[in-house]
Amino acid sequence: MLIHPWDAARDDDEWRSWLRTRDFGQLAANGVDGGAPVVVPTHFRYDGDEVVLHLARPNPIWAALEANPAAVVSVHDEYAYIPTGWRSDSPETGVPTSYYAAVQLVCRAHIVDDREGKADILRRQLAHHQPDADHGEVAADAGPYHKNLSAIRGLRLEVVDVRAKFKYDDHKPAALRTRVAAGLAERGLPGDAAVLQRQRSREAGSGAG
């Protein structure tokens, strides 16, 4: 993805803080034998060092990763369409754009097929998604889930690079950003409030949220 200097994360803390509260995205891998890329929507857990997840054994991503372990976990949020009139005094001459935040984790995939390894991934995911531990025992040879382990494969994704983008017109004049902010507040579509909050945090230089 194209990242202009003004769209880049302020620092690592900005994108890490943003990603910490998000756990659903798309896992992408190169297609096999020149075919189209394989893209899988999925929950995941990112702990700062690696991404872990599991998928059904018949998923087409496995053949792609076995042929080439390079993969990308792509996450986006806080997006909105910005109409022509918000970025110009005239809707007829204004140039529309999209505001959004996106983080792409470039990874090297390690497929996990042993039962204990898969159970460990499930435990880590459940600890994240259900921190109250309101679920059954997760073990390789015990508990209510161990019979289902043969139906899945685990994935550990070693993060080798991070691409982070926060596209909110940071390089434009303050008057334009103020007009866009007013438009977002008045329009009130789903997502507009989050975009407005992100825009304001970027203006403040905090990147928080």
Largest sheet: 7 strands, antiparallel
Using only C-alpha atoms, the radius of gyration works out to 20 Å
First-to-last CA distance? 23 Å
Strand line-up in the sheet with most strands = 2-1-5-6-7-4-3
Mean pLDDT: 95
Could you state the order of secondary-structure elements as H and E?
Answer: HEEEEHEEHEHH
Low-confidence stretches: none
Q: What percent of the residues sit in helical stretches (DSSP H or I)?
A: 25-40%
Residue fraction in strands: 25-35%
By DSSP, the count of extended strands is 7
Shape: elongated
Question: Your description of this structure?
Answer:
Strands 2-1-5-6-7-4-3 form a 7-stranded antiparallel sheet. Helix 4 (174-187) packs antiparallel against helix 5. The longest helix is centred in the middle third of the chain and has 15 residues, at 115-129. The chain has 209 residues and is of the alpha+beta class. The chain is elongated and about 65 Å long. A hairpin with an 8-residue loop joins strand 1 (24-29) and strand 2. It has helices at residues 12-20, 61-67, 115-129, 174-187, 192-204; strands at residues 24-29, 38-43, 45-46, 50-56, 70-82, 97-112, 152-167. It starts with 11 loop residues before the first helix and ends in a 5-residue tail after the last helix. 28% of the residues lie in helices and 32% in strands.
Q: Summed up, what is this model?
A:
This protein is α+β, with helices and mostly antiparallel strands and 209 residues long. It has helices at 12-20, 61-67, 115-129, 174-187, 192-204; strands at 24-29, 38-43, 45-46, 50-56, 70-82, 97-112, 152-167. Helices cover 28% and strands 32% of the residues.
